[in-house]
Write a structure and sequence with these properties.
heterodimer, A: mainly alpha, two-stranded antiparallel sheet, 3% strand, B: mainly alpha, 23 helices
């Protein structure tokens, strides 16, 4: 259907498919060598997979399975993910228009579909799959160990060792290698230029689509929803239809055993956007959720900080120009602009503002707090003044409770699902027996522990910590005023704190060592650690990640002063 | 690298494991069970490169939890153990053995016996040879249970004998248990190891059936064969046997000599000293003094009146004979710096006097001789004793006064 070439014989464009899967011209019945690609535009499993090149494959799948390609699998995964996003309230265009087109574009660019497949490649793919003779004799066939070592280590399935050793004894047919047609091929080729698809990359796709539509879901939220189970990721393959049998190397591709991290998904997304030659993304303006002003508001609320701080965050944003449309909007392929991590950036801005007002040197903020407390005693009108100490106590307590819960949840996480996974048909029965034993033991000890079943997934929520102004215990600081820690100067309220300490005097070269700054190596004040820790928990990223952004903002903010200092230094040296 | 903190299967399970451990240490069985439920899926991963795999973890942790949590329900426990047996063939016999121990702890002797028999008949290719040691243990414990049955039959027989009955069936059963037990017990004690209970039972059987030679040989092997680990009990058993057999003092003394070397604080040192003191040989008497001084170096003997009376007797005897004061000097040399505070403080004098007058009497004699009549301990006790008008204390006072110069010679 997408084949638009003219027939060599009659120059017509009127193609049909033979049973062997080849195109033939309906006008003159000329059969070509071209085979049809697998992908269906309707996002459902292509049931016509069965018609593909049946004659060329010597093995018959007698277990009721049909032939399927890896990218079909990923297609299914994406479909499930975007449906879940829809259920969360994302606009439906994302599925039908945005993501779908992205995916098609990807398939095209990576030459997996919608293009002329070089004949040589097709032959190679088949030769890997069709041989049913002795494993070791074929010099072209990559050794199994080689294949396993080439693939990414993100899913460190330790069964590799035993698998490799068990398979090397087998000299059977290649149904051992993978259930999919091109599983081994997928892992084998060095796909650096072609950006091979992986499970974490599915999330990059989702994020990219969300960004395009400017949905109010940040990447950290997306990843949190994934971990909380609202978006399928870990065991998505159990939703593959019966006909798509998963075994052997497919497991290495689809069965991940780790949660992807922010950095990974983020970087991949940008790579992907460049790879797909996408144009400039829709503008991120001030009214957008992803704009720092908006996100700062959200995070201030979640961190139980006074609303008044928002004025300050807006000022910082404005001063260093990170609220500009051109700064915030993604321009794929543009290597000179720094990629914007909207959520981390907003959190970092708040940290900087806190440093501006409270210094956070383990000394000044407590003094200020005492001062505010004093002032509060005489404060009769309006709301109470914000006291750092009280805020710290309240937030620390909640944070500790939530962190403890999170740690326990992480330890209790169940990674396996009902669908059995086996590398080869040989160890199927062993796998099933093991699974049965696991289920038995789970029942036995589950009864002992008193909890019959795992609690229902909590509803996905945008806020992890919530504070209500209605609480009379004074544990909500939103309405508190900053007047307690500000002073009047020339009719304006300014910070009493005249000092500031930079997280780092010199930024590192990100391309060399991967970071702008090194969080662990230098001792920072405890209050700073605490604040970083708070946002680290909320965003589920490492504190060092936020620290990098803080350094970046500080250097923009104090650019002139730093520049002057550097210049002065160089002059002296001369 | 930034991927170090990535949460993956392995890290998640490691964390889970530490939660289980914490819960167990705090005896929170329900909580431990909760986390173990989440841990068990580790079985579906291959950990062949790890030192302790999940199947062993689950066996050990699960056993602890079930044992403490549902002690009433042995059914659950047994069911779990059966599952564990199928999990790791390399551990099969070990699991069986531990299961048997638990059954015994729960008083289920018959079930334990059945399990042992079943385990004994297990064969699994080359594993059978690899788990030879465990097999021997299993056979040994079955032998032990056979001994136990024998013992029961023997008691029945003895009771019946008293009543004038004699039941042939019981007797035959008894003999058959003996045969079964003897075979297995004999086997295990051939292997170097610590087999106290097996040895005792075996010797008991042998003695009952009059095979004293074999018994003696077994005990000698157990005590003196250098391949066996040093074991004080081996010497104790040998000594007790020889005593029962009415052996000469010479052989009894030689049996206890090594015990003194290994465990100078052993309770048999009193017997040892008593025998040695009475000996005609000077060397033996010398050794006796050494033995009793050594025993009293230990805190556990401080209030042992019998031990002090042994020492007192010997010291007195030496002082009266005026021979071999140098023996006392030698022994006292290394002790004069710390024994006074350790044994003869004024506080102890008061306490000993209040709690045990005989003890204080013996100690006062020793103190008086070793430290002279001016020492705190002697002064206090003898004063109290004389005040209470107890005759022996007056005698004591006289004695020590008379021999007062001795302490100078000893400590000089």
């Amino acid at each position: 259907r997408d084949f638009n070439e003219r027939c060599a014989q009659c120059s017509e464009v009127n193609w049909g498919l033979t049973d062997g899967g080849r195109f033939y011209c309906r006008s003159c019945h000329n059969v070509t060598e071209r085979t049809r690609e697998v992908v269906n535009t309707d996002f459902i499993t292509n049931s016509r997979v069965q018609t593909i090149s049946k004659g060329l494959r010597k093995q018959e799948k007698n277990d009721g399975g049909s032939e399927w390609y890896i990218c079909e699998g990923f297609q299914l995964v994406l479909k499930k993910q975007v449906e879940a996003l829809e259920a969360l309230g994302v606009c439906p265009q994302m599925k039908d228009e945005i993501l779908c087109n992205f995916w098609r574009c990807y398939l095209q660019k990576s030459k997996q579909a919608y293009c002329k497949r070089p004949a040589g490649e097709a032959v190679k793919a088949l030769s890997v799959c069709e041989s049913s003779t002795d494993v070791d004799s074929d010099p072209e066939r990559p050794s199994l160990l080689h294949l396993l070592s080439l693939s990414e280590s993100e899913g460190d399935l330790q069964t590799d060792c035993s698998f490799a050793s068990s398979v090397s004894k087998v000299s059977e047919s290649t149904s051992v290698y993978s259930g999919s047609v091109d599983g081994s091929l997928y892992l084998m080729k060095n796909q650096k230029e072609k950006l091979r698809m992986t499970m974490p990359m599915t999330l990059s796709f989702c994020y990219m689509a969300l960004l395009w539509v400017r949905e109010p879901i940040t990447l950290s939220e997306l990843l949190r929803f994934v971990v909380e189970g609202h978006i399928p990721y870990l065991n998505v393959f159990q939703h593959f239809p019966e006909k798509m049998k998963l075994c052997g190397l497919d497991l290495k591709i689809f069965c991940v055993e780790s949660w992807p991290v922010y950095e990974e998904v983020f970087n991949k997304m940008h790579e992907l956007a460049a790879f797909l030659d996408l144009p400039r993304f829709p503008d991120i303006t001030e009214s957008c959720f992803l704009h720092p002003d908006m996100l700062c508001m959200k995070y201030l609320m979640e961190a139980n900080l006074p609303d008044e701080l928002h004025n300050w965050t807006c000022r910082v944003v404005k001063k260093i120009g990170i609220g500009e449309v051109d700064f915030l909007t993604l321009m794929p392929g543009n290597k000179s602009t720094r990629k914007v991590k909207y959520d981390v950036l907003a959190a970092a801005v708040i940290v900087v503002v806190l440093k501006l007002l409270f210094l956070l040197d383990d000394h000044y903020e407590w003094l200020l707090s005492d001062l505010a407390e004093e002032r509060n005693k005489n404060n009769t009108e309006g709301g109470p003044y914000f006291e750092f100490k009280k805020w710290y106590e309240v937030v620390k307590h909640s944070l500790d409770v939530e962190q403890k819960k999170l740690d326990e949840e992480r330890a209790k996480y169940l990674w396996r699902c009902e669908k059995p996974l086996f590398y080869s048909v040989k160890n199927k029965s062993k796998v099933l027996k093991r699974r049965q034993m696991v289920v038995n033991l789970q029942n036995q000890f589950g009864k002992l522990s008193g909890s019959v079943q795992r609690a229902e997934k909590p509803n996905p929520s945008s806020f992890q910590l919530s504070w209500s102004e209605e609480n009379t215990d004074g544990s909500c600081f939103h309405g508190h005023s900053l007047k307690g820690i500000l002073q009047e100067k020339c009719g304006l309220l300014t910070a009493m704190n005249p000092d500031y300490w930079l997280c780092t005097v010199k930024l590192c070269n990100e391309k060399l060592c991967g970071h702008l700054a090194h969080y662990r190596e230098v001792e920072f004040p405890q209050s700073y650690h605490f604040v970083l820790g708070l946002f680290s928990f909320l965003l589920r990223v490492q504190p060092s990640y936020i620290h990098d952004e803080v350094c970046m903002i500080e250097h923009k903010l104090f650019n002139k002063k730093l520049y002057k200092k550097l210049k002065y230094n160089t002059v002296l040296r001369k | 690298s930034s991927n170090e903190h990535k949460l993956n299967f392995k890290k998640s399970k490691e964390a889970c494991l530490s939660y289980i451990q914490d819960a167990l240490l705090q005896k929170q069985w329900k909580r431990a069970a909760e986390f173990l439920t989440c841990y068990v899926e580790s079985l579906e991963k291959d950990y062949s490169r790890e030192h302790i795999g999940p199947s062993e973890m689950i066996w050990r942790l699960g056993t602890e939890i079930l044992w403490h949590h549902s002690q009433n329900s042995m059914k659950e426990f047994n069911c779990f153990m059966e599952q564990m047996k199928t999990l790791g063939v390399k551990r099969y016999l070990k699991v069986c053995l531990e299961h048997v121990f638990h059954l015994l702890c729960n008083g289920q002797i018959d079930e334990a016996y059945q399990n042992l028999s079943l385990a004994e008949s297990w064969r699994f290719g080359e594993q059978t040879a690899l788990q030879d040691k465990e097999m021997k243990l299993i056979q040994a414990y079955r032998g032990l249970l056979d001994y136990y049955s024998w013992s029961k039959q023997k008691n029945i027989l003895l009771e019946q004998g008293e009543d004038g009955f004699s039941d042939l069936a019981v007797e035959q059963e008894m003999h058959s248990y003996f045969r079964k037990a003897a075979v297995n017990l004999k086997e295990i004690i051939k292997i170097p190891g610590v087999w106290d209970i097996f040895v005792k039972c075996y010797v008991d059987l042998l003695e009952f059936y009059g095979d004293h030679n074999e018994a003696r040989q077994v005990l000698n092997e157990y005590a003196y064969n250098s391949r066996f680990p040093a074991n004080p009990n081996a010497h104790v058993y040998l000594y007790q046997f020889l005593k029962r057999q009415g052996e000469s003092k010479k052989s009894l003394i030689s049996a206890l000599k090594i015990l003194h070397d290994i465990v100078p604080s052993h309770e048999l040192m009193i017997d040892f000293n008593t025998m040695l003191q009475k000996s005609k040989k000077r060397k033996k008497r010398r050794l006796g003094l050494e033995v009793i001084f050594a025993a009293l170096d230990y805190a556990g003997w401080k209030e042992n009146a019998k031990a002090w009376s042994c020492l007192a007797r010997q010291v007195k005897q030496i002082v009266i004979s005026e021979k071999h004061l140098d023996w006392i000097k030698q022994e006292w040399n290394s002790r004069k710096d710390w024994w006074p505070a350790f044994h003869f403080s004024r506080y102890l004098a008061k306490r000993n006097w209040q709690e045990n007058k005989s003890l204080s009497y013996e100690k006062a004699l020793v103190a008086g001789i070793l430290l002279g009549k001016g020492c705190k301990y002697f002064k206090y006790v003898s004063h109290q004793g004389c005040k209470a008008q107890l005759k022996r204390f007056r005698m004591l006072k006289k004695f020590v006064n008379r021999h007062n110069p001795v302490h100078l010679r000893i400590s000089g």
